[in-house]
Amino acid sequence: MRKPFIAGNWKMNKTVSEGAELAKALISLVEDVNDVEIVVCPPAVDLYLVKMVLEGTNIGLGAQNMHWEDSGAFTGEISPVMLKELCQYVIIGHSERRQYFAETDETVNKKVKAAFAHELIPIICVGESLEERESGQTEKVCERQVLAALDGLTEEQVARAIIAYEPIWAIGTGRSATSSDANETIGFIRNVVRNKFGDSADKMRILYGGSVKPNNISEYMKEPEIDGALVGGASLDAESFAAIVKFE
Ligand SMILES: O=C(CO)COP(=O)(O)O
């Protein structure tokens, strides 16, 4: 049985003080939730204070990106060794990073391996653009991204990795994928993983992301293949993220 996993990706929002306030507000709203794994992913500069605020609560912490090297002359970058002291998860290969910051399947794979080397759990993002969807390439694109990201991992690592299927056309647009479409693509992704890594595919959690809101989360969570959500905009408000985490 896969435990549902719901993470908030704050993207480039919330200063250190705003991030601490949001985390504080969230604690009491979700303290009675124990059947869902809850994670927030603030900007890197917020991580230290948010970690302090969340200590001893049921809310986990993740980063939004990292470099694959442990240390060195990489101005502006943050390493897995640094993140290890702050959080348990790291989002890798978000479509915004692929689109604006030249992230490739190859760098995603290096980062995923580096995450496991330092006991961080990667939340690996995959998903097709509108153009790719309209030309019938959704499965081909997802298969390529998933196989590249997981290349060289052990079955045990794959079982612990998390994938977020986020169709690019559904991110921040209010145009979410239907729950049955998302379920179908996530089922396809799980089959791709099963063909290469066997039963670990049934242990791996695969999330949906893209315009998830309090009023549509339950539709996704009813689907058998969807194990949770990666939430952008609606995670920036404590009440709305708590409502998503407490979906009925
Ligand atoms: O990109 C996302 C999460 O990583 C989704 O963002 P929105 O929920 O704002 O569409």
TrEMBL record:
Active site, renumbered: 94 (electrophile), 166 (proton acceptor)
Domain of life: Bacteria
The protein's name in its UniProt record: Triosephosphate isomerase
Catalytic activity: D-glyceraldehyde 3-phosphate = dihydroxyacetone phosphate
Classification via Pfam families: TIM
Keyword Cytoplasm tagged: yes
Binding site for substrate: 9-11, 172, 211, 232-233
Quaternary state and interactors: Homodimer.
